[in-house]
Amino acid sequence: MTTTLGLPGTIGACLFDMDGVLTRTATVHAAAWKETFDAFLRRREGPAFRPFDAVADYDEYVDGMPRADGVRSFLASRGITLPEGDPGDPPEKDTVQGLGNRKNALVLQKIKEMGVEAYPGSVRYVEAVRAAGLRTAVVSSSANCHDVLVAAGIDGLFDVRIDGIVAAERKLPGKPHPDTFLAAARALGAAPEQAVVYEDALAGMEAGRAGGFGYVVGVDRAGQAEALRRHGADVVVTDLADLLDDTVPDTTGGGAA
């Protein structure tokens, strides 16, 4: 049984990823990762340079993860290990933290130049969720989450924010671990089975499945619907506004309960 929000009637809390679910920033992140990794790989590999794929590599190795985890994950796929370094490493330093800082500087530059846009369908859906009396949280690995929400004009739509800064302060592991989503559910006073996770990243799907949440919604912005289902989505939509139509089916038989 689903409500007119496309959710089981037992749901009382909604946990939204930000990049790619609420805001059109996933492509900005992908471009920043590509610029960061390509510059590093050119220096390291020379004529054998193989560029970072802003679709396949982004989806598989970095999407949804904290920056340092994304650096380690992608470099491991190329058989590369770097020193960890320090959080204050300059962007030009070839350490895990240095590359992460380079990527962050590029993201901030691109956001400043291009601005931030929220998906209109997502805004409509979150507003409908709140009008129905459900509580809302944004759960993001980004340390820039608050600034992005403010820039997009949607910071007032969420009761709780668990972002990269909060995760670091509380030492919460990032996605695909469920800890940040579980922290958001607790802050909203909901058990995991009473909460729904909205994600566009494969790592986010795995976090939803691992956390035992009541429902996991995959948002397919990149033509990876089947992969989202395999990684734990109960239902996949191309836009959150699709869930305002109560005919949206459960296509997987329950992937995250």
UniProtKB/TrEMBL annotation:
One of its GO terms (molecular function) is hydrolase activity. It comes from the Bacteria. Belongs to the HAD-like hydrolase superfamily. CbbY/CbbZ/Gph/YieH family. This is Beta-phosphoglucomutase family hydrolase. InterPro entries: B-phosphoglucomutase_hydrolase (IPR010976), HAD-like_sf (IPR036412), HAD-like_SPP (IPR051806), HAD-SF_hydro_IA (IPR006439), HAD_sf (IPR023214), PGP-like_dom2 (IPR023198). Pfam families: Hydrolase. Residues 79-98 are annotated as: Disordered. Keywords: Hydrolase.
